[in-house]
Amino acid sequence: MEPPVSYPQSDSYQGRRIYGKKSGCAKFSCVGVVGAVVILVIIGIAGYYFALPALMPNSLSGDFLNMVIVPTKDGKEKMWILTDGSFNFIQTTKSPGRTSTGRECYFCKTWTYIVDPEDQKVLKKTKTPYEDIITQIDMIYHNNAVWMITREYGENEPRVEAYNSETGDKEMDTKEFISKYPDLSAGLTEVHYSKDDNALRMKTRDGREKLYSFGDSKLYKDYSELNKKQDKDSTIITIPILAAEDNSSSPRKRFLTATGPKASIKDNKSRVERIDDKDDYLENHLKIKVGEPGEKVYLEGIMYYDDEDCAIVIHLDKLGKKSDRLMTCIDVKTGKEMWTVQPDEMFDEMKIDEEDDTFSSLFFTKSNIDVKRSGNLVVLQLKGQGIMGFDYRTGKKLFEMDI
């Protein structure tokens, strides 16, 4: 005789959990709750990245990418500020035998703001969509236009674009830039801006490598051809130098100037920067005259900006695991300091405290700092924090914008 078969009863806990109608309602309720949460999250994200910027047209949103100061016809300055308005996140993908983690983005785009530095009012705001993560965009003011050079990444093609500096309207896109030069007709695969050479290094789909010089708006075969052109430049110039005292690795830097043919100074800049010994060859053969170094020492000094009028140096008040940064503007013609901005007037994050955080060290923070100047406006920018404006004549702090 077969043993009796036992079935779960509807009033037992197990029966209710597996077989009862209540279990089905609970299951669908859970799915409904999860779905509702997901929908709310999506609505929240969409609201933040679409509705909020529309409702607040005079405020800056997104992560700071770059900025440039643009002189205007009325003799004043405007700031062009670029931010990443994408929704960026880290995604982990698992497959049999493999796990990969990478950065992704939704609603990939940048915001370009034209801002009046006097009152920080947004004069114009432009959205530019992208296909993938935005890694780097260089901004250059050249020939009354703002150029934006977008580094290629993933789905993003390299871009070379120019905008009218007065109106903010696009004057040239990548296709129009390419159409000017037959050697670029196959299209671009890579583009990289070199600040030192003030040139674009480009690679094309048919295997060419070309250089576009902003100095003369011409295309060159390679750096060798560009250097040959520059080697013929005998224009007499004076450039500021921060030279290491005693040896090249010394943290003690002194300010000096070098005057001579432009090509000769460019080729021998590293030699000029050595002031630990007298080099008669520079003056007698290379026609470069090096001025006497100033008495002031700039500890771990870095020249973040220079032109024919001034040099702006950021340096430490003392050496050690804890120190503050100072920003000093030096007159190139006289070698005298015009002003110095004290630590309490700059970003707190520029302070160095290796005992508290290794990543606040000089090594990790110096590449996140940049300085720009046009007319009477000097802008200090710190990646991940924002920008500060200072009066070029006095060093007085004019504004601070968290971005």
Lay out the secondary structure.
Elements lengths: L12 H7 L1 H35 L7 E9 L5 E8 L2 E9 L2 E9 L2 E8 L4 E9 L7 E6 L2 E6 L8 E6 L5 E3 L1 H6 L8 E7 L4 E6 L4 E5 L4 E3 L2 H9 L4 E9 L7 E10 H6 L1 H4 L7 H5 L4 E2 L6 E10 L3 E7 L5 E2 L1 E7 L5 E5 L10 E2 L8 H4 L3 E6 L2 E6 L3 E6 L5 E6 L1
Antiparallel strand pairs: 1-2, 2-5, 3-4, 5-6, 7-8, 8-9, 9-10, 11-12, 12-13, 13-14, 15-16, 16-17, 16-18, 18-19, 19-21, 20-23, 21-22, 24-25, 25-26, 26-27
Helix pairs in contact: 1-2
Which spans have pLDDT < 50 for at least 5 consecutive residues? 5-25
The total count of helices amounts to 8
Total strands: 27
Separation of termini? 82 Å
Mean pLDDT: 85
Give the structural class.
alpha+beta
Rg from Cα? 29 Å
- Biggest sheet character: 7 strands, antiparallel
Helix content: 10-25%
Which overall shape is indicated by the principal axes computed on the Cα atoms?
A: globular
Share of residues in strands: 35-45%
